[in-house]
């Protein structure tokens, strides 16, 4: 029994050392514990732990009984002392074994949580980097769009000034055409007046010729 307990405690200590230091054995130990904690593994582990605890409590009860018997007898019995020493050693080893098993369980749990936390932090860093990259890309696109808008505004201003020039020229041409139209109307009126005068002169000449003929 004692040799078995020493073997189990040595195995547990080796497993704890493997979990504490980052070596290839650590991955194997974590994989083994992951498999143990799946399916019926936790139930079997709890059953074994409860059995060991009950045996430890039985050993403690035996130690108490031996101490009472020695106290009542008032004499030293070598057999009872040896039995009490063996029971105390077994109880101590079983308690230490349960303690190391609890340590292994907690170490495995914290290592898994640490790995999940690191994965989450790595994912968050990747997202922040991608966000920064996209932000930089958007900022470059925004700058390009702003430059394009500025160039378009300049073009619009140039077109507006050109349009104003063209509008002024069109108004000047329209005023010139109005002037020419008024001049043509004046010429027509003058032409009409000249025609009337010509007709009057002709009628006067015809009247004068008629008088001479008489």
What topology does this entry show?
Elements lengths: L1 H19 L3 H13 L4 H33 L4 H136 L1
Main location: endoplasmic reticulum
InterPro entries: BAP29/BAP31
Membrane topology: Multi-pass membrane protein
What does this structure look like?
This protein has helices spanning 2-20, 24-36, 41-73, 78-213. The protein is rod-shaped. The model has no long low-confidence stretch (mean pLDDT 81). The chain has a domain at 1-137. It contains 4 helices and no strands. The chain is 94% helix and 0% strand. It is mainly α.
Largest sheet: none
Rounded mean pLDDT is 81
Number of strands: 0
Number of helices: 4
The radius of gyration over CA amounts to 59 Å
Q: What is the N-to-C order of secondary-structure elements (H for helix, E for strand)?
A: HHHH
Structural class: mainly alpha
Question: Could you give the distance between the termini?
Answer: 181 Å
Transmembrane segments: 6-22, 43-64, 84-104
Region (Disordered): 163-192
Family: Belongs to the BCAP29/BCAP31 family.
Main location: endoplasmic reticulum
From the structure above, extract its key features.
214 residues; mainly alpha; rod-shaped; endoplasmic reticulum; protein transport; ER-Golgi transport; apoptosis
Provide a compact summary of the structure.
The chain is mainly alpha-helical and 214 residues long.
